[in-house]
Amino acid sequence: MDAKANAAALMGAALIAGGGMVEQAEAHGHYVVECLDADGNVKWTETIENLVVTQGKNFALDTLLSGSGYTAGWFLGLVDGASTPTYAAADTMASHAGWTESTAYSNANRPTPNLSTAAAAGSKSSTATAFTINATATIAGAFLTTSNAKGGTTGTLYSVGSFSGGNRAVVNGDTLNVTYTASL
After folding, report:
1. Which residues are bridge partners to 36 per DSSP?
2. Of 2, 47, 55, 58, which has fewest CB within 10 angstroms of its CB?
């Protein structure tokens, strides 16, 4: 008695035997922005799912897996909403043709978020960081960078994103409290 297997049976057996374990980590994050009026009343709150750009991912890999210590300061910025911004994975602080920074706040520099120690679930959050609005403007979203230079084009862009509900108006005297959470 001869037993023969056809090519289809062999292919199926080879595919079944090819199983294995794969772990994937992706950089994610979100901003929560709360707008308060001059009297401290909440005008609106928005959550922004962000894009972690290639430059930000590479910065994380290069610093965390380089085998030596490093120090990086982080700063929050606002995205101008005069038009509808677009974002690309290739965006950097020096080159982001689809969006511009809003500087309609009185802080001398981009504010520094107070980032917590990483949580057991693989996330890291900041406490609310205040932007004191000093003009009538439209804000589209927020970004995280390593440069505190308000309106500057240096430093490493980590992430950027827009409000899900569309651009939001702010006026002189408003305060925007921005919180950022990063996760893997």
Report:
1. 42, 175
2. 2
Question: H or E element: which one contains 15?
Answer: helix 7-16
Residue 79 CA to residue 103 CA, distance in Å, equals 9
Chain centre distance of CA 129: 15
Q: What is the pLDDT along the chain (184 residues), one digit of tens a residue?
A: 444 444 444 444 444 445 565 556 677 788 999 999 999 999 999 999 888 888 888 888 777 777 666 777 899 999 999 989 999 999 999 999 999 999 999 999 999 998 888 876 778 888 899 999 999 999 999 999 999 999 999 999 999 999 988 999 999 999 999 999 988 7
DSSP strand pairing (137-145 vs 168-170): antiparallel
Other beta carbons less than 10 A from residue 70's beta carbon:
9
Which of 165, 107, 106, 108 minimizes the C-alpha distance to 139? 165
Q: How many residues does the chain have?
A: 184
3-class secondary structure per residue, 46-114:
EEEECEECHHHHHHHHHHHCCCCCCCCCCEEEEEECCCCCCCCCCCCCCCCCCCCEECCECCCCCCCCC
Residue owning tokens 């959470």: 181
Is there a contact between 164 and 25 (Cβ–Cβ < 8 Å)?
A: no
Q: Which amino acid is at 122?
A: G
